[in-house]
Amino acid sequence: MKLSKELAIKMLRQMILIRRIEERYFDLYSRGEGVGLSAQCNGQEACAVGICNALQKNDYISPTHRVRGHIIAKGIDLKAMMAELFGKRTGICKGKGGPLHMVDIRTGILPVAAIVGAGIPISVGVGLSIKKRGSNQVVACFFGDGACNIAFFHEGLNFASIHKLPVLFVCENNQYAISMPQKKSMLVNIVDRAASYGMPGIAVDGNDVAAVYKAAKQAVKRAREGSGPTLIECRTYRLMGHFQGDAYRGIKYRTQEEMDEWAKRDPIDLFKKKLLDERTVNEAVLDAIESEIEVKIEEAVEYAKTSPFPEPREALDDVFAT
Question: Which of these, 24, 204, 244, 316, is most buried using a 10 Å CB contact count?
Answer without folding.
Answer: 204
